[in-house]
Amino acid sequence: MCDAGHTGPGGGACTACAAGKFKTVPGSAACTSCGAGKYAEGTASTVSSDCESGTYSAAVGATVNSTCSGTRCSAGKYGQTGATSASETTCLLCPAGTYMALTGASACTNCTAGKYSAAVGATTVDTCSGCDAGKYSVSVGATTVDTCSGCDAGKTPASTRRRLDLQPATNALPARPQMPGAQARAIARAPRAPGPVATAPRNQARGATTVTPSTVMGAAAPAR
């Protein structure tokens, strides 16, 4: 079976689709020529590409992007892609609450929740302003600060809670101070205090000699 972007008879050799043609699924089906407003550069294409907004092409089986005539929509604008005539190449300004930094776009990008923008034709995400502290908004593509609502008592915006969760706890017990290595070694080498000195029992008579096995063995035998 031939892969997508390739064609051939069942069980036979597979051939890559020629430029200007494509094939999206595997199998023995033939490659399809790109329609007007589209093109496929190179061989073995699995899809055809649209002419970007602001441009068009009436040609079928176009092999290069330069087949698309006209000027791409500039940043801050959008328009129809895959146009087949000049009448379909109108570029429109991105509406409030959106922006687009690229050229040839088919749609603009919304400001995310928690942000808003009243600007028309915005070209950067920095145009989207955030809600004030203590307020939030769940609206996407908001156009006014009025979409920001105050938090209920005892609550904070989710973004604020996430920042607080990342901060270290302030009520943790202080860490025990570590003894420097030199001090610890000095304490280990210091001599220990002498223990109590053993004394003779009080009831032992003065001058008496304590007999031990060593003294008995060393004594001279009595004369017979």
Describe, in plain words, how this protein is organized in 3D.
- The protein is of the alpha+beta class.
- Among the domains are: about 70 residues, Tumor Necrosis Factor Receptor, subunit A, domain 2 (Ribbon), CATH 2.10.50; about 70 residues, Ribbon (Tumor Necrosis Factor Receptor, subunit A, domain 2), CATH 2.10.50.
- Helices cover about 10% and strands about 15% of the residues.
- The chain contains three helices and 16 strands.
- The strands form eight sheets. Strands 1-2 form a two-stranded antiparallel ribbon. Strands 3-4 form a two-stranded antiparallel ribbon. A two-stranded antiparallel ribbon has the order 5-6.
- It is flat, with a radius of gyration of 45 Å.
- The chain starts with 5 loop residues before the first strand and ends in a 6-residue tail after the last helix.
- The relative contact order is 0.08.
- The C terminus is likely disordered.
Short structural summary:
The chain has 224 residues and is α+β, with helices and mostly antiparallel strands. The chain contains 3 helices and 16 strands.
